[in-house]
Amino acid sequence: MISRRDFLQVSMAASALVGASGFGNWGRLAAQQSLTQDQLLQFDTFGNISLIHITDIHAQLKPIYFREPSVNLGVGGNKGHVPHITGADFRKAYGIADGSPSAYALTHDDFSSLAQGYGRVGGMDRVATVINAIRAERPDALLLDGGDTWHGSYTCHHTAGQDMVNVMNALKPDAMTFHWEFTLGSDRVNEIVEGLPFAALGQNIFDSEWDEPAELFKPYKFFERGGAKVAVIGQAFPYMPIANPGWMFPEYSFGIRDEHMQEMVDEVRAAGADLVVLLSHNGFDVDKKMASVVTGIDVILSGHTHDALPEPVLVGKTHIIASGSNGKFVSRIDLDVRDGQMMGIRHKLIPIFADVIAPDPVITKLIDEQRAPYADQLAEVVGKTDSLLYRRGNFNGTWDDLICDALLSEREADIAMSPGVRWGPSLVPGDDITREDIWNVTSMSYGAAYRSEMTGEFIKVILEDVADNIFNPDPYYQQGGDMVRIGGMGYRIDITKPQGERISEMTLLKTGEKIDASKSYVVSGWASVNEGTEGPMIWDVVEDHIRKQGTVSVTPNTSVNVVGA
Amino acid sequence: MEFSRRETLAMGLGAAVLTVLPFRVSASTEDRIAEFTGGADMADTGVTLTAPEIAENGNTVPIEVSAPGATAILVLATGNPTPGVATFNFGPLAASQAAATRIRLAGTQDVVAIAKLADGSFAKASAAVKVTIGGCGG
């Protein structure tokens, strides 16, 4: 029997480097002196197999700021368990000192101040340096991309994903699974996937007409590594046609399909797999449930919900790894696999501090080539921000408050709705807001800002419906996003109630009146999944609004009253 | 206020309202079950029902039922105005007692499959299928 101490040799990079010395007084000099690339990459190579996991990059080629959520509520059996703890609770759970690099990377407190000291994170040229360093120690390490790669920026939108395909191909992944990629439309996805020099995996990607596995996407792929047979099974985002516009990829059907997952695990085990790895875009809580339902998976590389966890979570015999988003982290997992069994694991969540990790010059040049045709557009300064602009959080973030303000004023609406997506980097106070920054939080293939009349009753139906996609106690009924962000209206939500009873006290903020179920209100929003949605593009609406403001200030949003957390 | 029809046509909302009302159960479900089983007890194992947790399209939801050794399987959509979906009968020469079809669901509800086994006993399985207007993914 292997004890947890021996088995989980886990460390968060540099977590012990900096002692507690309070918030808010971190000078850039102190921060940078205390961190080195060698410290971030330090890892005693272990066992015979290495996995490198990166996921949910959302087309962030260049370094960015990314503030983690302050509100990330778990329900049912997941209440109070990672990843549903934030801030001081998170730091306490993992022994992270206040003000330390790990505190900056993994929690939200004092973000603007710590950002001054530690600087930006991510950048695919920095990621390349980390991958190269791991490969120098383990040349046949498997690089696995969890998807949400070909979406999320100005250049990605204008090249229909080609910028990301070019850069990722240069990093030489071994396999990938999918989500937002499909919002490029099935023709474009098929075109790219047919030319991919690595495996495109998804055991749950089915042909919608025949309800049979789609031919283009294989359920799994075998790799021979360290004298062992490694099976990597793919799991695409299960609810793509529901959370995203299904009409853009009508040939495909998804779903969780855990019975089929079990069949695939049994099939690869029967074919001699010594190690079974699931490259998943399920979202963390769905992966936890799947690990308890499907037997025989050794490691789940979890994506979609953008959680970054410094230790694996063990469910039964399955280790679940969460590697963050937006290029901010890379996970390295070394495994000892012998005689058809996983005997040990060593894991490190490596934060990509952009000022500490040297960029790989080959990839820097490649990134610059992708951006060059759009350089003027990207760099144009639209305005400036006095406030920290961030998106993550279950109910609101300042970016979406600003976007909702833009919709209310530019579209002359009573109420604004912004989708509860989790992608989009942050800006710190004093930053210029460039066109690129606006596109980083808005770009998509269905970005029309609609303007519509809705009754109070229907607005409640929408809120109840979205709330159940987050707070249904059974993770298999969750879609992995956050609550739709509301401008111009306040409400109370009891997350412990069933669908239909969670939302109450809906109030129109401009008059203070209660929302009338039978009255119609003018609602403006964006990212409707319905075909034929009309309106100006959201990035233009937001740009017009910011231009008029010059410098934007976002006051804290107190219009959502959360109960039952 | 300027408000053109073009701009108001944003989401196909009208039709969606009914489909997202909370969990539906139709009264005639119990009658159909009693009719099929004659009021007999139903075992929890013996029939497998495979259905998506959330329907991609409530108008055409793929389901599968199988019950080794069954002579008939009744499928009910318990929240539809008319719950009866299908009864699959299997003769003695049937190679397997399984069937797949697509059903229409009026909203979030349980789909139920009841198998009549060769020895005359019954088995039941149910699956909650959510019909949602969808929204926003990570």
SSE arrangement:
The complex is a heterodimer of chains A (about 575) and B (about 140).
Chain A: H1 4-7, E1 8-10, H2 28-34, H3 37-41, E2 49-54, H4 87-94, H5 101-106, H6 111-118, H7 124-137, E3 142-145, H8 154-158, H9 162-171, E4 175-176, H10 186-194, E5 199-200, E6 206-207, E7 212-213, E8 220-225, E9 228-235, H11 240-243, E10 252-253, H12 258-270, E11 275-280, H13 284-293, E12 299-302, E13 313-315, E14 318-322, E15 329-338, E16 341-351, H14 361-371, H15 375-379, E17 381-385, H16 398-410, E18 415-418, E19 432-434, H17 435-442, E20 449-455, H18 456-471, E21 485-487, E22 489-494, E23 503-508, E24 513-514, E25 520-526, H19 538-549, E26 551-552, E27 560-563
Parallel strand pairs in A: 1-16, 2-3, 3-4, 4-5, 9-11, 11-12, 12-14, 17-26, 18-25, 22-27
Antiparallel strand pairs in A: 2-15, 6-7, 6-10, 8-9, 13-14, 15-16, 17-19, 18-21, 20-25, 22-23, 23-24
Chain B: H1 5-8, H2 16-19, H3 28-37, E1 42-43, E2 48-50, E3 61-66, E4 70-77, E5 84-89, E6 98-103, E7 109-117, E8 122-129
Parallel strand pairs in B: 1-8
Antiparallel strand pairs in B: 2-3, 3-6, 4-5, 4-7, 7-8
| Basic shape of chain A | globular
Q: Please, how many helices of chain B?
A: 3
Residue windows where pLDDT falls under 50 for at least 5 positions of chain A: 1-27
Described by strand count, sense and barrel closure, the largest sheet of chain A is:
7 strands, mixed
Rounded Rg of chain B: 18 Å
How would you name the oligomeric state of the polypeptide chains in this document? heterodimer
Q: What is the count of DSSP helices of chain A, taking H or I runs of 4+ residues?
A: 19
Q: Trace the largest sheet of chain B across and list its strands.
A: 1-8-7-4-5
CATH fold descriptor of the largest domain in chain A? Purple Acid Phosphatase, chain A, domain 2
> How widely separated are the two ends of chain A?
38 Å
- Remind me, CATH topology of chain B? Immunoglobulin-like
